[in-house]
Amino acid sequence: MEDKRQRARVQGGWARSVNKRGASNTASGVSSARSQVLGSTSHSRAKRDKRLSSEKQFVFKAPEEVVRKAPEPKIIEKQGVYEISTLPSGVSRIHLVPGFIDLNEADWMFGQLFQEIPWRQRTHVRQDQSFDEPRLTAWYGELPYTYSRLTMQANADWHPLLTMLKDRIEDFTKNTFNSLLCNLYRNEKDSVDWHSDDEPALGQNPVIASLSFGATRMFELRKKPLPEENNDYTYVQRVHVPLDHGTLLMMEGATQEDWQHRVPKHYHSREPRINLTFRTMYPDPEMLHT
Length: 290
Ligand SMILES: O=C(O)CCC(=O)C(=O)O
Known about the structure:
The protein is an alpha+beta fold. The protein has two domains: about 1-55, no CATH class; about 75-290, Jelly Rolls. It has six helices and 16 strands. The protein has helices spanning about 1-10, 20-40, 40-55, 105-115, 160-175, 255-260; strands at about 75, 80-85, 90-95, 125, 130, 135-140, 145, 150, 180-185, 190-195, 210-215, 215-225, 240-245, 250-255, 260-265, 275-280. It has a seven-stranded antiparallel beta sheet with strand order 2-3-14-11-16-9-6. The termini are far apart. The site of 2-oxoglutaric acid (AKG) has 11 residues, from strand 9, strand 15 and strand 16.
């Protein structure tokens, strides 16, 4: 009886593993009792001991988690340089500088930019359908800028405040810029959809300096999926950066090659926001690779 219970426990193995010495003691105890009754030989006792010790223990293993979860976005809101990915194309890096422009100055600048930049709403045409961009824009630079098949004409007539801001950013970052795309988000309904600033005229690994004024809006980045993910962004890494009044955000390295970014619409009301993105345009990007 004791032998049967012991074997059941060894085979089931749920409660605890059986110590070998205990098992062989029990087996030998039982077999010695039996040997008196059945007259068993030391040979058959050895065979039985071998069988008991070779019986495999059943070890319970919890089923592995197979549900794939989309990762939570990483929130970046403190000053610092953040390496958000390292891939064969290189390191993608963002540098956040809240309070780059102090609040009083930023208030005055917002008023000037809102009033004095020649803001325009542009129209895109896609598959014979035209739609208005959900924001107003203006372009500054010696060269025209084409994105999403829309061309903004060259405009070398820089507003003095924009030139001053460009100089300040150049001093701070030790980069130079020759062009600027200005965006005005009039309210919570204005936005910019997922894209990368990867036009050939911006060269490889462009450095982009983005300065924000007015209402805080969320700047979201998502990593481009690997080829085997078939353009499915469900499980990609995400980074969210709240951009508030006077904040400078630098995007560097492979950020345009490996990530996309956007500023989504909001459900709750938002005051106007202005964003200035300073870039460098090359007249003949082919020259960069020769
Ligand atoms: O408004 C922003 O912060 C982003 C603007 C932007 O993505 C762009 O100009 O390419």
